[in-house]
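Tutorial sheet, problem 5. The two components below are modelled jointly, 583 residues in total.
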Amino acid sequence: MIDLCGVELNGPILNGSGTFDAIAARRAFGDALLERFPFDCFVSKTITLQPREGNPPPRLWETAGGLVNSIGLPNKGLERFLELDLPQLVELPVPLCVSVMGFDLDELAQLAEAVGARDDVALIELNLSCPNVETGTLVGADPSATAAALEHVRPRTRKPLIAKLSPSAVDPAAVAAAAEDCGADAVSLINTLKGMPLHPVTRQPWLGGRSGGLSGAAVRSVAVEQVAAVASRVGIPVIGMGGVACGRDAADLLAVGATAVAVGTESFRDPAAGRRISAELAAIDASPSQKFLQSNPKGSTSTKLPRPQVEV
Amino acid sequence: MLAEPRTLAPPERRVAEVKRVERVGAYDLIVARDPIGPADPRPGQFYMLSAGERWGGGDGERPYLPRAFSFARVRPLPGDRGADLSFLLEDVGPGTRRLGELAAGESLALLGPLGVGFTRPADGRRPLLVGGGIGAAPILCWDDELRADAVEASILLGFRSAGHAAAAALFGGEPDVCTDDGSAGRRALVTEPLRAELERDPRATVYACGPEPMLDAVRELCRELAVPAQLALEAGMACGYGACFGCVVPTVEGYARVCVDGPVFDAEALA
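Model answer (structure tokens):
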């Protein structure tokens, strides 16, 4: 059991928002999905106030050790999410976290208030990877914009708020500290890294949305660095994610200070990835040698640390 | 309303054993023994495939994501012991190349069956099956099933050339074969015999799978002649079960996911 902002979870494995659609998965797998649910907490796809169609295809590009996606947050909008999707998500055997994104602060606050009012919603994740209308930069890349978002939303709900940080920030730890100061109960990172694959023949952008977000094994070490930096700066729980594909990857994020770990792209390769990673992590946790970084939260590479043989 | 033609998949990737890989002209036909999954996938449904070894993971390079393939044939094993599944594939990139390299005894990781399959014709219409290239795969298992129920289907197949047209030999009956270069069958696009068939007797339901230009032409023809058509679409997808939202196609109700709302769509539903 772990405690995440006062919510009890059977274990530390979540899904990254937008990487698992439990309703569609139940259509494909039936109730076996509920009997063998892969995560300890389910995070919804990001909900916006108005319905969104998402970006034109193509939306995917496979790259070395990863995936660039340009999906564009398709969703039913708040009203139809509450009416049609929430009653189905309540049937999942784990606590529910709803991810929301607003195109301005009032929208964000309205979304958080509306989903927070539902007893079935245990946690709210604020997707801060939306453009700041004044500066054009991402809210989650800027400490002051992030602070303003939290100050606006915090009074509107008592539910735990998780700020999803952007890896594009110059200093993600400063953004996390701003979120903490303004009432965030946790932070989650990393979101995808921006990328733009080109068509192999025309050399025009391949993706319908021109650029997209890189995820998968390729971003793993970026996640470890940013989670380490953030966890050493804030006191609130950190949910780490980015290229987690096995128990060892999850253990790495926990070792640098994460309280929980989310699985994303690996679920595309296997819907049961979360369950496998939980089992692998449980086996690793029994071995204290894997925890050596926990005594060095700054991640220093002192020569006194054991230097394991590295496979080349 | 009819129930969706969907057989549920176990909710995890599993491993099948490759029994053999047959060379069928320009294609490879992988036959794999799946001891766990259902023995009654619906024709038109698909599986996400990856090689059990040397596929992403450790070395991290492409291929990284699994690849979607309609099954081409299913042979249930006696005593509820799963099924032998056949997949038709052509080497067009790192994923299909790696799959084509698989040898008997090696492992094929799979997830499925996924998506919705074909629905039987209504109103006493006859089934008219149209396959283009690798799109012959779901046409083959659909013909197998109809044939097992003593339903006679006309089959029209189009290929680039004789090397690809070798896949026509997998069919039980006598499919009408066209090639782009005339090296096997007649030199024509498959829509030419399709038009002739439909003008001869329009009381048909068309089932088609193939490259996008072929499906567009089939759709246009069926609309012109007011013939219902079910199209099995192909799309690049990361997951196959609705998680990634990557495989959308425009429909009259907005974007739909090929993997969970399809891959078989009524032609009229597509925008």
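Marking note: Chain A has one domain: 2-295. Full credit if you identified this.
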